[in-house]
Design a protein that fits this description.
The chain has about 270 residues and is mostly helical. It has a domain of about 110 residues: Serine Threonine Protein Phosphatase 5, Tetratricopeptide repeat, CATH 1.25.40. It is elongated and about 70 Å long. The relative contact order is 0.06.
């Protein structure tokens, strides 16, 4: 799990775009965007000390990243707690990560779960996915397959590609949910169509084996090829194995289809490194 920092900072700034800002917030924002972190800290700190939730969250991120101050996870956590106590979703999520990874405090899976849950109940996508994983493995809470899938679904419906794959795989295997290969195919496809290499591989398997879809060697090869281009070892092996029984023209057609498919994906829908 990774903390939300830069994107969260920009959201904090945008929150004030359509309303009157607190005195000093605009100055802090301008300084931060100019990478004058010392001035930004000088402007945000008084606001944070007065209880401004956005400034508290920003202070947490600045200590977290060491921007304008020496990096200090303990101080970051204190500011996140202040913002989190007021309901700031990203601060709550960041606290969940810090408790899980023992950053600035002793590792505490129960506390980690608590903060993720607070954010997840407000619709925070990453926290919803995190809860799904925690319920899956029973970390910080009792393992519960049904609740895991409930949270995966909430994140998946907000287009979280890892949650879509997790939900699809659970439908495929009947983990914590009634087995349904059609639902499995639909969720795995949604993830694959966002460029997730693991989902591309799983969709290739469905086409190769004719599960929930008509068996189609060229379609299977195309999805394996897409995943293999993102260094998925299993997909490369599967494609090589299929190539032994396919016609050269079918392989060429599948490779061309993969190239065309990859080219039309938006840049932000190619999550190879995540």
């Amino acid at each position: 799990m990774k903390k939300q920092l830069l994107n969260s900072m920009l959201v904090a700034f945008m929150a004030f775009a359509s309303c009157e800002s607190f005195a000093g917030f605009d100055e802090g924002k301008a300084a931060f965007l100019a990478r004058d972190f010392a001035t930004a800290l000088k402007e945000f700190k008084p606001l944070a000390e007065k209880g401004d939730i956005q400034s508290q969250h920003i202070m947490g991120m600045m200590y977290d990243e060491g921007q304008g101050v020496k990096q200090d996870y303990a101080q970051a956590a204190e500011w996140y707690k202040k913002a989190g106590a007021q309901g700031h979703q990203d601060a709550q999520y960041n606290l969940g990560v810090m408790y899980a990874q023992a950053q600035g405090m002793k590792q505490d899976d129960v506390e980690s779960f608590k903060w993720f849950e607070k954010a997840a109940k407000q619709g925070h996508i990453l926290s919803q996915f995190a809860l799904g994983r925690l319920y899956t493995v029973g970390r910080g809470t009792k393992a519960d397959g049904k609740l895991a899938n409930d949270w995966y679904r909430k994140a998946a419906e907000q287009h979280h590609y890892k949650a879509q794959l997790a939900l699809g795989k659970n439908y495929l295997d009947g983990n914590g949910i009634r087995k349904d290969v059609k639902q499995a195919e639909q969720w795995i496809r949604k993830s694959a169509e966002q460029g997730h290499h693991k989902a591309e591989y799983e969709l290739g398997l469905l086409y190769r084996d004719g599960i929930a879809v008509k068996k189609d060697a060229k379609e299977a090869y195309m999805w394996f090829e897409l995943a293999a281009k993102q260094d998925h070892v299993g997909a490369k092996q599967a494609a090589d194995a299929m190539a032994k029984t396919m016609k050269a023209e079918d392989i060429a057609a599948a490779k061309l289809a993969a190239s065309n498919w990859h080219a039309k994906l938006p840049a932000d829908a190619k999550p190879a490194s995540h």
